[in-house]
Amino acid sequence: MSELEEKKIQAQQSAPAATPAATRPAAAAVPAAPAENEIHPRMVTIDEFHKEMERLKNEEKMDMLELITGEDWQEEGLGCVYNLWSTDTGKREYIKLVTTDRENPFLPTVSDLWEIANIYEREVFDFYGVKFLGHPDMRRVFLREDWEGYPMRKDDETEQNNPLRMTNEVLADTTTQYDRMPDGSIKETTNVVFTPEDYMVNIGPQHPSTHGVLHFRVALEGERIKKIDPKLGYIHRGIEKLNEAYTYPQTLALTDRMDYLGATQSRHALCMTIEKAAGIEVSDRVQVIRTIMDELQRIDSHILFFSCLCQDMGATSAFLYGFRDREMILDIFEETCGGRLIINYNMIGGVSHDLHPNFQKRVKEFIPKMRQGIKEYYDIFINNVIARNRLIGVGVLTNEQVRNMGVTGPSGRASGWHNDIRKRQPYAAYDKVEFNEVVRTEGDSYARLLNRIDEMEESLHIIEQLIDNIPEGTFQTKTKPIIKVPTGTYYSCVEGSRGEFGVFLESKGDKSPFRLHYRSTGLPLVNAMDVACRNELIADMMAINGTLDYVVPDIDR
Questions:
Q1: CA gap 323, 303 in Å, rounded
Q2: Centroid of chain to Cα 137
Q3: What HEC string does 173-212 produce?
Q4: Using an 8 Å Cβ cutoff, are 68 and 124 in contact?
Q5: Spatial distance between the Cα atoms of 492 and 383, rounded to a whole number of angstroms
Q6: Of the chain's two ends, which shows fewer C-beta atoms within 10 Å, N or C?
Q7: Are 321 and 451 found together in one domain?
Q8: Closest C-alpha to 376, from 331, 312, 315
Q9: Residue 63's CB: how many other CB atoms inside 10 A?
Q10: pLDDT digit string, tens, across residues 270-319
Q11: Compositional bias (Low complexity) at which positions (predicted)?
Q12: How far apart are CA 240 and CA 517, in angstroms?
């Protein structure tokens, strides 16, 4: 090494350390805005619960028990989240109730406040084993009476405890009611469902006019219906349990397979819930496309309602008229996304395909043809004296009854209850269009029929306003390869073909939901059959059944 190089190295070693350049202060973290659909259930103690729920119903006018979601929070315990809604004021309330006793979980009933709680609480008992104190009928409603365990619990060993059974299920004619005594002990009382003296007729589960595998046990007094006990669960596929192991995009396919006549609407609700919770924005184009497709789906559903009601009542020609018109909608669906019944169209962040070049033309051609079809429905069936005699004044539900039983959609609005989500809580493009909420006050089978016919007219009016005003833009927002929803609890709902379809989502921040529960449109409807059919003729049961218009896979999730 030269003398010059050596002096340079010595100088570098003896020089003071360089002062680091000043760094720019880091920007303060911007807190994420709370999701629009995030809910914060209020914890209530077991001792205070019933009194508080009574106050909410009477003082806060919470006329609707929207949903009861059973949950297993593991270390925290078992319990429920209650969705309450005042359809008069629009206010919502969410209550959380938990018990830490996993061996003997007891919670107070609210079936004495809202009739719909009778079947909601039985659903929670069936899948989580929670027994509701004061509930008059703690039988399983979906699973076999001899089922072992509670499959929605996180630690349940379903397959090990339940080998394939080849024996017929024995149906229970008695049930147990649990009540807490002043000394804290639990008193068990046996209640009778049907007595040996009851004359029983079984309708279903293989009956064409139950529109699916559904079993009604019907007690008769002569030809008059004395009581109906619905037995569900013959089509059970465990969709809500499967969702706990699926990623969010994977959960979408299952919604189409519940209410297959409201496939786009159900999937719209799930996508909307995930998008709002995860902060994913969709374009105006997507919002309008979803609105048009939802209304086409509503017309499709109401046509099939009309057709099947006609078939149930022996009017085969009218049945064929309906299927002729429905085919036009299915052709539009098929050209748009390849599906006719199972649509698979809505995706997280948008839709799977942009509109077909022929979409607007075919929809605009469909509208006048459908209006002509509706006129023919009146001529061939609705104004027919036989149909009127069999439907008018039959299967009446009052305004108070439909609120108490959560009967939403056209069936609830036929009894004067204003509950249309599109009006009460607008979503997608419903705040950009004008339409009427179809409401009648008679509450009978004929009013339920007319409501759906009028709703088809309103759907055509909505589509007319949008079909030439579809905005430009992307049909799919780019999302992360793996979608995770922030920790929290979320609820969103849409107006399905049969009423309110809701999505309750609880996330722990993972790529799969911790709990994903659906507010079925059909479960309240089938639950209302007992009230609607009491003291009616057995010959009128299928007309009442048809005008309530449930879809069985939507009931049995």
A1: 7
A2: 24
A3: CEEEEEEECCCCCEEEEEEECCCCCCEEEEECCCCHHHCC
A4: yes
A5: 39
A6: N
A7: yes
A8: 315
A9: 20
A10: 999 999 999 999 999 999 999 999 999 999 999 999 999 998 888 888 88
A11: 15-35
A12: 6
